[in-house]
Every structure is written in structure tokens, then in C-alpha cells.
Write a structure and sequence with these properties.
The complex is a heterodimer of chains A (about 200) and B (about 325). Chain A is an alpha/beta fold. In chain B, strand 5, helix 6 and strand 6 form a beta-alpha-beta unit. Chain B has 2 domains: about 130 residues, Rossmann fold, CATH 3.40.50.1370; about 150 residues, Rossmann fold (3-Layer(aba) Sandwich). In chain B, the strands form 2 sheets. In chain B, strands 7-6-5-8-9 form a 5-stranded parallel beta sheet. In chain B, strands 2-1-3-4 form a 4-stranded parallel beta sheet, with helices on both faces. Chain B is globular. Chain B is about 35% helix and about 15% strand. The chains are: A alpha/beta (about 200), B alpha/beta (about 325). Chains A and B meet through helix 4 of A and helix 1 of B.
Chain lengths: ~200, ~325
């Protein structure tokens, strides 16, 4: 018999998430090189990974704008076409929009995702970005690092590192999609296909 | 800043419930919309510096073309290549087909080579349905006789979607040899499923009246009636090889009665012109109409690759599927 679903445990409240984003925006600002002759809008950009990463990137973009007065460009990335498990799923995953309204070549990119686990999504995202051009650098930012890495991908900026069990799942919820901000730890239903993150 | 594009359907991912693409008669509006949305994302890939993604690495796609075709075959092979799938193709000449091998045996042999998807063009209506029953591969119909040409219809609908807001209330007229046109039949299915109104127009000898009742369309033998209150006119290719059958007196007379000219475009200032190609200039469309800015024929061709990428992506079988051994 599968164990009954545990009640979800809240890892971050809306306020915690806000403070984490405040701190991360600060860390991004520190990376802007004052000696770079180019304007920050030419040298930097956010790339939000579908779906939650896009909304988190928008918030970071807004915070950077408040603090430094610059609006860094923001792109949307869907890595479905680059995933290594496309043909292992029960049905073909839905492809979402990829919209990168700037040239990635020569730019410092901040790649934003909600949760990193196996690292496979990050691997796919790097391949996708490299096909679009040759970025000057990619900084991988994630709100939650829940461990269980299967490929050597390490986030550069981590909101919180949370050791989890393999059958658990971390859900970062954002108001724009889920109606509420916060991070929850839930045990995934026993039969569900492993969601590679 | 780009807000997530609000799609015209609820957020629920409408998965494809079909294993094959044989014709569009059983495809629901949700499934067609899912195919179109997926194709739109692949269209974006075609505009990138590197127009290839690794999505279908390790998948093999065989195109079996038992009837001549340039664009459809090229388009499918290109689509498979853009998805990093492996392609092999077989055409009628120079293969065992001319040696008398049956369709079933050819397909079973191809299947025994561990092919995942078979793209089939055949002169017999129902040939893809037959293969779907007797082999284990995923079958994509690339045109079977006068029956169906689903990917052409889907790419036509995809092209329309670039130019119109909604299919509900959209009025499309299809003009030409309706009797022999698989393109017309598949387009009627796709368009009526999506909520558009379709008018079929052509010489009485090429316009089966039964279609009106069977397919929920309007028919007319007068071009003016077809173009009045019409948003998009799709002219079909007149097949020169049918000239002998005496279906119309001459190509010149056909052009006079059913050819779309600049005069029509002037009288219908919002009308868009489509054509599945290859165009007979001066017959279905006058020379100036083919090159007119309201003729969206070339974007049909571009969309063809994106649409076929979506079809291959959504239908490619899962790798862990237990392989039924082909004898």
C-alpha cells in the first residue's frame, strides 16, 4: 500500500520568498562590472525558464530596476526540445514559448529557474542557449536547490538549499500562476512519473 | 515586456489522443489547436541562427512515396532533420516496388529495420489506414489518392491563423477541382472542426453535390458567389493530366470562369489568397495575383516545415514501448 500523502510543509512564506529575491537581486547587481564599457542593458540579460522561472525573472528584473534604475532585457526559455527524456514520458510534453528578444552573443546571462534537482533541465537550458549564440557567461540562479544531482550542473546563486528525499517534491508557487507566493515540500504521489528538474 | 501569449484555448494541455495521423475526420478542435500551437513554437526555431534542435535524436522516420511529390517529401525530410531525427526515403522508381512487392511487404520490411514513423504518400485512398492496421509503426498520411492530405490542411490552417484572429465565423472558399482534391477534403474537415464556414466552388463536373450534405459546406458553381462575403479564397491546382477527361473545355475558359484576377482583389479589398502549389500561373490565379501581397502562398511553404515538425514531435513513439517484433 502506498503511504498516504503527507501534508505539505511550507519551506518559505511569501515574505521569505520576497526577501530571498531581494538578496538575489543584490547579488546580481554585484556582478555588474563597473569597468564594462557597455551599458548594463547591453551587457546583461535575464533568461527565465518556463513557467515559474519566467515570473521569478520578472521580479528580479523589477528589483534591479528599482535599485539601479536600469531595465535589463528579459527572455523566455522553454527547454522541452532539448530535454533528454522527451521520448521517455507518457506523452509528449507541451512545448511553451521561447522568446529571446536580444542577441545572446557576448552577453552575461542570468538563467532563472525555480527548483534545481537532477540538473538535467539546467543541462538542457545550456544547450538551448548555446544554440542561440555564444554568451559571455551564464549565471545559473535557482530559488531552491533540492540536491539529487545526476549531472554536474551547479547553480551559482541559490535562494535556499533544501536536502530532500528522492520521492519528495518542492513546489515554488508564484502569484501569477498559482494565486499565491510560497515554497512547499510535498511528497509526490507514488505512481507519478519522475519529474526531471 | 512579452506577457505569456494568451492562447485561444483553456490552459489544459490538450494531448494528442491519436497514435497516427491518417485523416482529420476524428481529430477534435482541441487536438488541432494543440498541433497548431506546437507548430508555432517550431516556427520560431526555424528563425534562429541554428535551425535544428536535438528533440528527436535517435528516432527514425521513413518516407515512402509511391507517388511523385517534391515539396511534401522535401518538407517532411527537412522537418525530421530539423528535429535531429534520422531519415530514410523510398520512392517508387528504383525500388523493390517496381519489382512487384506489395505495400504491406514493403512496409513490414521497413518496420523490421526499426523505423519509428512511416510517412506515406500513395495513390490509393485508405493506404495509410491499411498500413496502420497491419504494421506497428506510427503512420503519417502524406496524401492518399483523392481522400486526404492532413498535413497540407493543417499547414493551411496554421497559415490562416497568422492572418486571422479566430476561426469561429471565418469564411473560406475553396475553388477548383473539388472532386479530385484531397487537399479540399482535409481542409474542409480542419476548418469546419475549428468553426469556420466553408464554400466549395468549381465547374459542375468537378463539384460533387453530395459533399454539401455530407460535409456541412455550401457549394456553388459561380466564382462571384464564392468570393462574396469571403475572407480567404483557396485556389486548387488544376491537374493538367486530367485535361483528357473532358471536365472543362479549355484552361483558358477555366481561367475566365474560375481564375482569380486582380479585378477580384480590387472588388474584395480584404480577401486573402492561398494555393497549395504548384501554381499554374494564368489558370487558377492570374500572374499578378500570385505575386500580390495578399497572396500568402510562400508562408504556406514555410509553415509546412514547422507543422510537420510538430506532427513528428507529437506522434513520435515513446522509446520504452515494448517493441512488437516484426516478422
Amino acid at each position: 500500500m502506498p503511504p498516504p500523502n503527507r501534508a505539505p510543509a511550507q519551506l518559505m512564506t511569501a515574505r521569505d520568498l520576497e526577501r530571498t529575491l531581494d538578496r538575489m537581486a543584490q547579488q546580481i547587481l554585484e556582478r555588474i562590472d563597473p569597468d564594462d564599457a557597455r551599458a548594463p542593458t547591453e551587457a546583461f540579460a535575464f533568461v527565465g525558464m518556463q513557467t515559474r522561472g519566467v515570473h521569478l525573472a520578472r521580479r528580479l528584473q523589477a528589483r534591479v530596476r528599482e535599485q539601479a534604475g536600469v531595465t535589463l532585457p528579459l527572455g523566455l526559455l522553454d527547454v522541452t526540445m532539448y530535454r533528454d527524456d522527451v521520448r521517455l514520458q507518457l506523452e509528449q510534453p507541451r512545448i511553451q514559448a521561447t522568446r529571446i528578444p536580444f542577441d545572446v552573443t557576448g552577453r552575461h546571462l542570468v538563467l532563472v529557474d525555480d527548483v534545481v534537482c537532477t540538473g538535467r533541465t539546467g543541462r538542457a537550458a545550456l544547450d538551448a542557449l548555446m544554440d542561440l549564440g555564444r554568451p559571455a557567461s551564464v549565471c545559473f540562479l535557482t530559488i531552491i536547490d533540492r540536491r539529487h544531482r545526476e549531472v554536474p550542473i551547479t547553480p551559482d546563486l541559490v535562494g535556499r538549499s533544501v536536502p530532500t528525499l528522492p520521492d519528495e517534491e518542492v513546489r515554488v508557487e508564484v502569484e501569477e500562476v498559482d494565486g499565491e507566493d510560497g515554497v512547499w515540500l510535498v511528497s509526490s504521489p507514488p505512481s507519478s512519473a519522475p519529474e526531471a528538474r | 515586456m512579452a506577457a505569456p501569449p494568451p492562447s485561444d484555448a483553456p490552459e489544459r494541455p490538450a494531448a494528442l489522443r491519436h497514435r497516427h495521423l491518417l485523416d482529420l475526420s476524428t481529430y477534435s478542435a482541441d487536438e488541432i489547436r494543440h498541433l497548431l500551437r506546437t507548430a508555432e513554437e517550431f516556427r520560431a526555431v526555424l528563425e534562429r541562427p541554428i535551425r535544428q534542435v536535438p528533440t528527436l535524436q535517435g528516432t527514425s522516420v521513413a518516407s515512402l512515396f509511391f507517388e511523385p511529390s517534391t515539396r511534401t517529401k522535401l518538407s517532411f525530410n527537412l522537418a525530421a532533420g530539423r528535429l535531429s531525427a534520422e531519415t530514410l526515403s523510398l520512392s517508387k522508381s528504383g525500388s523493390s516496388v517496381t519489382k512487384g512487392e506489395t505495400l504491406k511487404d514493403t512496409a513490414r520490411n521497413v518496420e523490421a529495420m526499426k523505423v519509428d514513423v512511416v510517412v506515406l504518400r500513395h495513390s490509393s485512398p485508405g493506404a495509410p489506414h491499411f498500413l496502420a492496421r497491419c504494421t506497428d509503426s506510427v503512420i503519417v498520411n502524406a496524401g492518399d489518392g483523392a481522400h486526404a492530405h492532413p498535413t497540407q490542411a493543417l499547414l493551411d490552417v496554421l497559415t490562416m491563423r497568422e492572418h486571422v484572429d479566430a476561426f469561429e465565423g471565418l469564411r473560406v472558399s475553396i475553388i477548383g477541382d473539388i472532386t479530385h482534391s484531397r487537399v479540399a477534403r482535409s481542409n474542409v474537415q480542419a476548418l469546419t472542426t475549428l468553426g469556420a464556414t466553408v464554400t466549395l466552388c468549381g465547374p459542375a463536373t468537378m463539384l460533387p453535390v453530395e459533399m454539401e450534405a455530407a460535409l456541412d459546406v455550401r457549394t456553388t458553381t459561380r466564382l462571384d458567389a464564392a468570393l462574396d462575403d469571403c475572407d480567404i479564397a483557396m485556389a486548387l491546382r488544376i491537374q493538367m493530366e486530367r485535361q483528357d477527361e473532358g471536365l472543362f473545355p479549355s484552361t483558358r475558359e477555366y481561367h475566365r470562369q474560375f481564375g482569380i484576377t486582380l479585378d477580384h482583389l480590387r472588388r474584395h479589398p480584404d480577401l486573402l489568397i492561398m494555393h497549395p502549389g504548384p501554381v499554374n500561373r494564368g489558370i487558377e490565379l492570374s500572374n499578378a495575383v500570385v505575386d500580390h501581397e495578399r497572396a500568402i502562398i510562400l508562408s504556406q511553404v514555410t509553415n509546412g516545415v514547422a507543422l510537420r515538425m510538430a506532427v513528428l514531435y507529437l506522434l513520435a513513439p515513446q522509446r520504452d514501448r515494448p517493441d512488437a517484433s516484426a516478422a
